[in-house]
Amino acid sequence: MSLSIPAAVDWWRDLQPDPGNNHSGDRAGLARLRRSATVAEAMQDPATIALFRRCGGSGPRDLPAAGLAAAVLAHVREDDRDNPRIARRIGPDTTDKAETALLKPLRFRRLMEADGPDDRLASFRRLVGLARGKLAVGDLTAALLNWSPQRQQRWVYDYWNAGQPIATANTEETAP
Fold first, then answer.
1. Which domains does the chain possess?
2. In this structure, are residues 140 and 5 in contact, taking their beta carbons and an 8 Å threshold?
3. What pTM does this model have?
4. Taking a C-beta distance cutoff of 8 angstroms, is the pair 67, 40 a contact?
5. What pLDDT score does 1 carry?
C-alpha cells in the first residue's frame, strides 16, 4: 500500500475531541464512521475521503484500505503508547495460560483468518471494543492499511510472545 501511516495517525488525532486544548475534533465524522456498517459505506464518508487524500491515496486498493482504517480508528479513543505492539498486549501472558489473553485464541484466529474488508472491519472493531478503545494507534493503523502475510505472521508471534520470525526481522513490516 502506498498510504502513509504517520499521516493516518495525524488524521486520527485531528478527529479526536480534546477539551483540554480547546480542540473539538470532528464529532460528527467520528459518529458517522462508528455507525458505518460496511467498508463500502465508510468509503463514502467525507472523513474517509480526507484520510485517503491526506495519506496520499491513489491506487484502486487505497480507498477500501482507507475506509477500513477510518471505520475502525473512529472507535479508538486513546493512543496506548505504553503498549506499542497490539498483538502482544492482547495475547496470553504465557502460551500455557491462554485464558489470560484479552482476545481469546479463537477470536484471535478469526481475526487472522478474516477474509475481506467487511470481515476485518468486524474483527478489528471487536478488538478495539475489548481493549476499551485504548490501543497503539500506529500499530493498528499499519495493520489496517497493510494486512500483509508478513504483518499477520508478526502478529501471531507477538500474540503468543514467541519472539520474531527470522524472515521478517529485518524488513520494514516489523515497524508500525
1. 5-174 (1.10.520.40)
2. no
3. 0.88
4. yes
5. 43
